[in-house]
Write a structure and sequence with these properties.
Blueprint: E1 6-16, E2 25-39, H1 43-46, E3 53-58, H2 72-84, E4 91-96, H3 107-122, H4 129-140, H5 146-151, E5 154-159, E6 180-185, E7 191-197, H6 204-209, H7 217-236, H8 239-245, H9 252-255, H10 262-271, E8 276-279, E9 286-291, H11 295-307, E10 314-317, E11 326-328
Parallel strand pairs: 3-4
Antiparallel strand pairs: 1-2, 1-11, 2-4, 2-5, 5-6, 7-9, 7-10, 8-9
């Protein structure tokens, strides 16, 4: 493909972990951020040869997004050019926010994926989708958000066998390379994710700090069994399996202490027909899996329960985005 001068990229929000799938499973949701990249001559705007980027942001919380070279979207854009050994061009970036910031819905993953995909298209698509994915995982540090944001659907990511590199003349290897195995998880069309997005934030750093450094063998076995059951429950839509499968002992018992009203919202959601409630990503967004018949009642119950605690959430019944990041030019 030839290089282009402008490209628009749409990237879906994601929910990660889904209870027992800590740091390894995620799903793309029908909620989006949009990014437009346009090559420009920035010298009239920002002082000649030192000019690199102009960023404009619209949408809720737009004023909180960094608009200089520290912007994560721009950093991902630059990362791809650096990977290719090229200098990024002066660029104008337009951001339309649809994914709430710092709420556990993968806003940072949309920026990483959007920047990499946008740069790859502008330069003529020299990297394959799997190569872009590897760069995204390296930037994010784990795959559970960036993989479904890029590929769509529900995805399970696991480290593959380490690839042995060619040896140098001195006999020492140049370095090992860890590859990823990505498995698509079938999602029954009758399962509806209902999200309640509160009017407060929870940083990923804070959410990780409350986790223990070690877990018991019993808890590890518990999560292994329940992740297996979750995969079958998502595929079949079996409500009994999902009710059991959404339990977790690795992260949610600790993180829920950071989310006011967690237990009250969970009781209300399950009573209204939810199979179970989980923390979306690092939180504080709460996500309930239910069926199409009960999704409206579940959303109303979650909203009422949280409002009783003085918290005003935005509640939405979403779908699973099956396309992932897409570009238009």
């Amino acid at each position: 493909m030839a290089a282009v001068d402008s490209v628009s990229v749409i990237v879906p929000a994601t929910t990660a972990n889904l209870g027992p799938g800590f740091d390894c499973i995620g799903a793309a949701l029908t909620l989006y951020n949009e990014f437009k990249f346009t090559r420009v001559d920035l010298s009239p705007y920002q002082g000649g040869e030192t000019a690199k980027v102009i960023i404009t942001v619209t949408g809720a919380e737009a004023e909180r997004v960094q608009t200089d070279e520290g912007n994560l979207l721009y950093q991902a854009f630059v990362k791809l050019y650096q990977h290719l050994g090229q200098t990024p061009p002066p660029i104008e970036i337009e951001i339309k926010l649809g994914v709430p910031l710092a709420r556990g819905l993968g806003s940072s993953a949309t920026a990483i994926v959007g920047g990499l995909v946008g740069a790859n298209v502008l330069v003529g698509k020299p990297l394959s989708q799997s190569q872009v994915m590897e760069l995204a995982i390296a930037m994010e540090g784990h795959p559970d958000n960036v993989v479904p944001a890029l590929l769509g659907g529900c995805r399970l990511a696991a480290t593959g066998v380490e690839v042995e590199p060619p040896y140098t003349q001195s006999g020492f290897p140049k370095g090992r390379r860890q590859e990823w195995e990505i498995c698509e998880v079938p999602w029954c069309e009758n399962i509806v994710p209902v999200v309640a997005i509160p009017d407060f934030e929870l940083s990923t750093k804070e959410a990780r700090q409350v986790l223990p450094s070690q877990v018991s063998r019993a808890d590890a076995i518990f999560n292994t069994a329940h992740l297996g059951l979750l995969l079958r429950g998502l595929e079949t839509g079996n409500g009994d399996w999902l009710r059991a499968a959404l339990q977790d002992k690795l992260h949610q018992p600790y993180r829920k202490t950071l989310i006011q009203g967690y237990d009250i919202v969970k009781v209300a959601a399950v009573a209204a027909g939810g199979y179970g409630m989980v923390i979306s990503g690092a939180g504080p967004t709460l996500l309930v899996l239910t069926d199409t018949m009960n999704s409206e009642a579940v959303g109303a119950a979650m909203s009422a329960a949280w409002r009783s605690q003085g918290i005003s959430p935005v509640v939405q019944s979403l779908g699973i985005d099956t396309q992932g990041a897409r570009s238009f030019y």
